Amino acid sequence: MKTGLGGVIVYVPDAVEAAAFYERAFGFERKFVSDGNDYCEMQGDVPLGFVREESLQKLLPEFVKNRPGARPAGFEILVTSKDVDAAFARAVQAGATPVAEPHDMPWGQRVSYVRDLNGVLVEICSPWSAP
């Protein structure tokens, strides 16, 4: 049986606020907002969704919450851009916290890192694919 990646969900204090940040910082477009604003989904080949933490707490009372002052969780959201420097600058101007300025990697890719308003690690890099 073949499976595929259906999307990415990030649990946040405020789903609508997180979606608005990704619109400002990365140019994403909102696709859907649920009644009650508990869930926001962004447009994309792999949907990115934001869900209010209270929804997860009903099923999983204890989990590590994404927070700006805490260490980032062991995952990242990857955003690609042909102009990494401009995308990095836009994200920082929108309120992202810079982690690593744009720089070139030995394999030719340009990468940078920021943290979003909830402390989630976001890599901004030039397009890539596995060899």
From TrEMBL:
Question: What start and end residues bound the annotated signal peptide?
Answer: none
Molecular function via GO = lyase activity
InterPro entries, alphabetically? Answer: Glyas_Bleomycin-R_OHBP_Dase, Glyas_Fos-R_dOase_dom, VOC_core
* Alphabetical UniProt keywords: Lyase
Instruction: Give the VOC domain ranges.
Output: 4-127
Q: Which Gene3D superfamilies does the record cross-reference, listed alphabetically?
A: 2,3-Dihydroxybiphenyl 1,2-Dioxygenase, domain 1
Q: What is this protein called?
A: Lyase
